[in-house]
Every structure is written in C-alpha cells, then in structure tokens.
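User: Predict the structure for this protein chain, please.
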Amino acid sequence: MTTSRAGPPEYAIQAKGLVKVYGQGRTRVAALKGIDLQVPPGCVWAIVGPSGSGKTTLLTLLGLVTEPTGGQLVLAGRDIYGGRRPDLARLRREATGFIFQSPNLIPFLSAQENVLLSLSLKGTRGEKAQTRVNELLEYLEVSERGGLYPNQLSGGEQQRIAIARALANNPSVILADEPTASLDTDRALTVMRLLRKVSRENGTTVLVVTHDYRLMGVVDRVIEMVDGQIVAEKPAEAMRARETLAAADRGGLDSV
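Assistant: Here is the predicted structure, written as structure tokens:
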C-alpha cells in the first residue's frame, strides 16, 4: 500500500525556538527551552531522555494538541503560528496520527469499528471508509481480527489496530508515545518494524518517544533530551554503540 503526495516539503517538521512554560511566578516551570528541530519525510526517529525531560511535551506541541508559549512550527509545509492561523483541529486530524502506550481502543466497538470511527471524524463514511479499513487491516496483517472486540485481541494485535487508526486519514506525521512499553520484545519489535514499513512505503515521518533501547535497531536517528532541551541528535548506530558499551560496563561491575 503506497501513497503518493505531490510536491512534498523538504521537511515534515520544522521547529525553531519552541518554548513551553507552565504556571507563573514561583510555580513557573519551563518544560521546553528553545527547541530547534528539522525532521525530513519518510524517516523514523526516536526521542529519548529521562522522565521529565520534555519528551511528551514536545510530542504534544508537534501534534498540535497544545500550543507553545513561543517559537515557530512548520508542519507538513504549513506555518502553524505565523500569519493567518489554520484550523488546528482539522489540521491535526488530517496531518497527524497518534499512537500511545495503551492502545486506547473503545471497548464496545470492534477492531474495524475503532478504525472506522477515526475516518468518520474526518467525514469519510460508507463504502469508501470500509475499503480503507479493509486495506489497512490487511496491510497490518490483522484482517482476520477485524470483527473482534479489544478484549479478544492480544496486546500486539491491539497496538496494530491502534496503528491502523492512526493511519486511517493518511497523515504526514505519526507521533507515538511509548508505543511498545507494555509489549514483550518480539511484539515490540514487530510494532516498530511495521511503523518503519509504513514510513518507507508511504513517506510518513514517525517520531517515537521511548525509554526502550531495544528499538534502536529499528530507528534511523535519535534525539536525546535533558531538562527541556535537545542535548544530542545522532544516528541510531551511535546510540546502539553507546548502550552496548554501557551494558558491558554494567556487566563488568556486576562480575567484580
């Protein structure tokens, strides 16, 4: 399943000087402190860092869920906060897809119906919507599970349905917040390989917030955050090498 886009922008995401501040006075907390970021189309990047470093805050800003206190953002070629502001709710539905640690499927809807709901929110219904759902479930290799309810699906199958829901409206950017945290290694890698497949075949940009270093073999590049700032941006190979050395050091200390 491939999707072509006419004249894609050079970058799927461009952020310059993004700042997010919560509270005022003594309760003021700067969650993001001037984020600069350029992410090209068709890649899979991971965002890593300790808890409280601003990873999820950054994801919600890029996904137009919350607004920055300051800075600029261009998403899928649209200047979000410069000049005339676009309809953010509509752009969020059309340009972004979200995947979370918990699949958050509606329990009284079947797998198919959960994906159909996402399409209906954009106004796509009837035969066109059903065709799209069938296409997605087959693409993600869960077509035979479409009539089942979430409690009848394994964790990995539920996450595949969540991916289908995120892909339903053919977004330019998929934002995933700890999507593999509750999965075992095999299922976690399967989910990430599916996201990589989506990225390669559809030109979709995928950003994954994670603490899961098992995934470094699947992503292209890693953004490392500390205290609301990007402190490093490097190829995934560099992160894998660092983690291998750290693991060896821990093993050496344990053996002393």
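The first strand starts at residue 13 and ends at 22.
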